[in-house]
Specification:
Number of strands: 5
Strand content: 15-25%
Number of domains: 1
Helix content: 25-40%
Distance between the termini: 95 Å
Structural class: alpha+beta
Number of helices: 2
Order of helices and strands: HEHEEEE
Strand order of the largest sheet: 2-3-4
Length: 141
């Protein structure tokens, strides 16, 4: 039996231990990023629904669709009120686009959030989440 191989398993065990820790850290970071993305999507969907609840009154235009001149009445205020309900999401940037016929509002929500072990995987500044939502407004008139 050779005695010069003593202790050669310790570096292998340490290497596998470090690899296992990195795998667990990666799974935790990816899971947290997924949950943050899903939460932002829920928030954006809710904001789009709140904005869509602000009806367009076509009777003011004599029933004629004016395209870009139509506006969701109070839509921006409805979106901001909805965002204010969640203190963690108040810093989400929301941009809105109204369809040419004025009946559909599309929202794009952007937020950068920190994740666990982010610096370990090159995400020290956080993960940028971008989601889209749209809703059709009821048309009155």
């Amino acid at each position: 039996m050779r005695t010069d191989d003593r202790g050669s398993t310790l570096p292998v065990i340490l290497a596998f231990f470090v690899l296992a820790l990195l795998t667990v850290a990666g799974a935790v970071a990816a899971g947290q990023a997924f949950v943050q993305q899903r939460d932002l999507q829920d928030l954006c969907d809710g904001a789009a629904t709140a904005a869509a609840g602000t009806a367009i009154d076509l009777s003011r235009t004599g029933g004629v669709v004016l395209g870009a001149d139509l506006r969701f009445i109070g839509a921006d205020a409805a979106v901001q009120a909805y965002l204010a309900r969640d203190p963690d999401r108040r810093d989400a940037l929301v941009s809105t686009v109204i369809s040419p016929d004025g009946t559909v509002m599309a929202l794009t929500c952007v937020q950068t959030r920190q994740i666990a072990f982010g610096a370990l995987f090159g995400q020290g500044r956080g993960v940028r989440h971008v989601v889209h939502a749209s809703a059709r407004a009821p048309v009155l008139g």
